[in-house]
Amino acid sequence: MLEYSANPRVNCFLSERVSTLNDAINSAKEKSQDDSHIAVCLKDNGDLIGELFFLKEEPDTYSVGWNFNQNYEGKGYASESAEALLHYLFTQKEARRIYAYVEDNNYRSQKLCEKLGMRKEGCFLEFISFTNYDDGTPKYENTLQYALLKKEWLKTMNI
What are the residue boundaries of the N-acetyltransferase domain, all occurrences included (predicted)? Predict the structure, then answer.
């Protein structure tokens, strides 16, 4: 966890930045108590390589996200685990709609959303600020929203 949380590549994870092994251990313990955070580990050795998370919006909509160690990019781990998360939310949690916010310069997450069958619904200009410019003023980011309805997902799964 320390490997990918010490220097977040995406600004939305700046608030979760950890700088010591102790911080990472405490963060992992905290997240392990929260069913909406899911660790992604390698099968062969159990190494933590990333995490998935979701947030329910009543009555049946879920926001999803992920954070992965860049050393494991391009190997299919993110798509395999995110696909399992969508399956879980649609089949076990009875989600009707799932969406994800992605910064406009986070091309890997955009590609992942598209691979998952999510459609780009729009771009929120200067939507949110996670960091500041050198002069202290907020740096607002453009944010894309991707979404998928259960009925769309069922079609792609041929169910």
Answer: 1-140
Residues 6+ apart with CB under 8 A from 131: 11, 14, 138, 139
| DSSP-assigned beta bridge partners for residue 66 | 52
Based on the structure, what is the number of domains in the chain? 1
Instruction: List the domain range (segments joined by +) for residue 53.
Output: 2-156
pLDDT of 89 reads 98
Q: Residue 148 belongs to a domain with what CATH number?
A: 3.40.630.30
- Of the CA atoms within 13 Å of residue 52, those in its CB half-sphere come to 22
Q: Which residue, 82, 70, 91, 80, is CA-closest to 118?
A: 82
Question: What letter does residue 44 receive in the DSSP assignment?
Answer: T
Neighbours of 148 (CB within 10 A): 22
Q: Which pTM value belongs to this model?
A: 0.91
Distance CA(116)–CA(89), nearest Å, equals 13
Residue 159 has pLDDT above 70, yes or no: no
Task: Provide the residue type at 1 as one letter.
Answer: M
